[in-house]
Amino acid sequence: MGPSLDFSIALIAIAPFVAALFAPWIKHFTGQLAGWILAIVPLSIFIMLLGFIEPVSGNNVVVAALPWIPSYGIEFSFFVDGLSLVFGLLISGIGTFIVIYSGGYLAGHPHHGRFFSYILMFMGSMLGLVLADNIFTLFVFWELTSITSFLLIGFDHSRQAARRAAIQALVVTGGGGLLLLAGLILLSTMTGQNSLTGLLATAGLAQSHGAYIIALLLVIGGAFAKSAQFPLHFWLPNAMEAPTPVSAFLHSATMVKAGVYLLARMNPVLGGTEPWFWILTLFGGVTLLLGGALAIRQTDLKQMLAYTTLGSLGLLVLLIGVGTKEAILGAILYLCAHSLFKGAMFMIAGTIDHGTGTRDITALGGLREKMPITFIAALLSVISMAGFPIALGFLAKEEMYLAMTMGLWPDLLFLAVLIVGNSLMMAVGLLIALKPFLGALKPTPYKPHEGSLSLYSGPVVLSVLGVIAGLFTGWINANVLNPTGASIYNQAVDASVYLGFPITEPKVWASIATWILGGVLFWKAEAVRGALRRAGNAIGWTFDIGFDATMFGLVRLADGVTRFLHHGKLEWYTLVMFVVLALTLYLPMLITGTAPSIPDFPILTFYEWGALLFAVIGLAAVLVAKTRLVAIVALGIQGFAVAVIFLLFGAPDLIWTQFMVETLSVVILALVMTRLHLDQRDHREPALALRDGVVSLAAATGFAFVLLSVLQTDLDLTLTRLFEATSAPVAHGRNIVNVILVDYRAVDTLGEISVVMAAGLAILALIRLRAKPARKPSTPRARRNA
């Protein structure tokens, strides 16, 4: 079916920014209820998006576009299909509980209202990104996610670690954004389309273009930076310096999923080729294994969850790279499952920290009686994270294993990678869900206590949804997998995912192997953690250390370049400027062979010879001047000579303007130089004078050649006729010169006036700051008399 119009899509993307504007005042006037009140905004967006399920399930695309830069065909446009709808529902649904959770977690924080503004802007940025149609609209929201995440990660800006993590995230994701912009522009040039709907309609065109590999690498580079794929993975764990609500939102439904969204969206446009397949599967597989191994190596709950997110992102990238129908369906199911259980588990980790004062898993135990609701939510979350029946995570795992058991090489290799990666993440999930709650109660900084309703409502709802969703496979097939799979797979998909455990199928044996290996890793977690730490210490180098070294080198390089180019020597600045000017004037004529012919010297009248002699006398006076002051006054002679030339050729307006400018310039400069004692003689070495003279003559001769070239072209009277025809009726002025200055080039004239004003203020400041003569010390008697 064709697209239908619905401008409420634009409202969905804009509403969180409007709410962010008023969030501090709402927090100020409503206090502890602010989280519940502000959560109405994402909840309303979620309900609004639910209304799109029916048309999208019927393979309809809902679009909305507003003019932005019409001359370039750029619109502020949005659209909803299966893929954007799934992401939109996850962002707004989980965002509702994140806002509620923030109200309880940061209660009493002096900047609580500001935090609400940041988190709502973050939500709006991600919603705009997944709903954007025009590629430039997408890029704007893509960069907004980086900017708002910078504000959130560095929210506790008094800590150096938070500031470093925020800058690191901004540098990596911002650099990736530049790669993406270049890739999107190149794709637009290759296909003639500047919208995602247009790119999807011309799917297959880009792959046949000669610049395909360049566009592919640029887009993948942007996606890898945002979704923290190896080797750009190091920024994501450091982002845990952000408050826990940010971590929960960042890892479950927002920024780190943006790269996955982009790769899924671009699968019909760039996918289906060998480079796409191997780049995504290899880097995704490495990221999956690296994330799982580093997760089990940690003891901080948030760091453990952060590295499992890294592994999950690698898993999703690997499945998108494989690109079969089953792999795509497995990626969609895992995307939804991961968003639910990861959002819940991050909030659980924050609640544990809030209730005990520590996130160190080795210092926690016996909390099941003190925090029973949090314990139940943790158990339900790990059921989906481990892929146990009947959870949504079980359906996702079965479908991805089905995709890897339908062939031989390299599917069997990918199957082994998935089993090992899922086992590592299962072990970490079991550690987080069981270790803090079972066993004897350990002493903690705070007396353990259950969180408030705002803290446990989100984990309970999300974890319950993650488990019971597996019971509604019919609805999921029709309303989630079919439309979303069609968006990624670029053809109709008839999903048939079901809740079953056919023991004879290879995918079931892969699941059993995952559970066994995950159980063993959980049982031997201490030994595995120790071995991994020893291996890490033996290597001694990390990409995080490499980032610091790169930034240090970049700063040193910038410092060196600055010292070389901006050394503070005005004489050298002026010399370089005029050398470059001379080259700019001569090189085009030399390269193109368009040097002008030298005209014959004209026959001059006596008064024309007088004006020329006047100018020569002024030039000689400048050259033989003994002091700067005399040189400036002599330079004014040149200006008066030019005014006389204007007089001879009938330009009275220019005459008076030139006279006034020259007179004021000479007077002001003379006044300033005498007040600042700058009228002394310049001592110039003969070699320096010769050098400067050669450069000045070269620049002057170059200008003369350019002017001769202009005069030897045909005279174009188009502008002259335009000014003559429009000066009186349009600009209401009969003096064409004045009309040009104040109407046709008004902005230019305003700029000139601004420059003169700035120069005047600078001169005034110099005069006021000049050194005052030292006062003679007064005698004691003089002081007594005073």
UniProtKB/TrEMBL annotation:
Swiss-Prot/TrEMBL GO biological process terms: monoatomic ion transport
InterPro entries: CPA3_Na-H_Antiporter_A (IPR050616), MrpA_C/MbhD (IPR025383), MrpA_C/MbhE (IPR046806), ND/Mrp_TM (IPR001750), Proton_antipo_N (IPR001516)
Localization (cell): Cell membrane; Membrane
Any GO molecular function: antiporter activity
One Pfam family it belongs to: Proton_antipo_M
MrpA C-terminal/MbhD domain ranges (all copies): 613-676
NADH:quinone oxidoreductase/Mrp antiporter transmembrane domain: residues covered: 132-416
Keyword DNA damage: no
Key words, A-Z: Antiport, Cell membrane, Ion transport, Membrane, Transmembrane, Transmembrane helix, Transport
Source organism of this protein record: Pelagibacterium lentulum
Residue ranges annotated for the NADH-Ubiquinone oxidoreductase (complex I) chain 5 N-terminal domain, each copy included: 69-116
Spans traversing the lipid bilayer: 6-26, 33-53, 85-108, 115-132, 167-187, 199-225, 246-264, 276-297, 304-322, 328-352, 373-392, 412-434, 455-476, 572-591, 603-624, 629-649, 655-676, 688-711, 753-771
Bilayer topology term: Multi-pass membrane protein
Domain MrpA C-terminal/MbhE: 690-776
Name of the protein described by the UniProt record: Na(+)/H(+) antiporter subunit A
Any one GO CC term of the record: plasma membrane
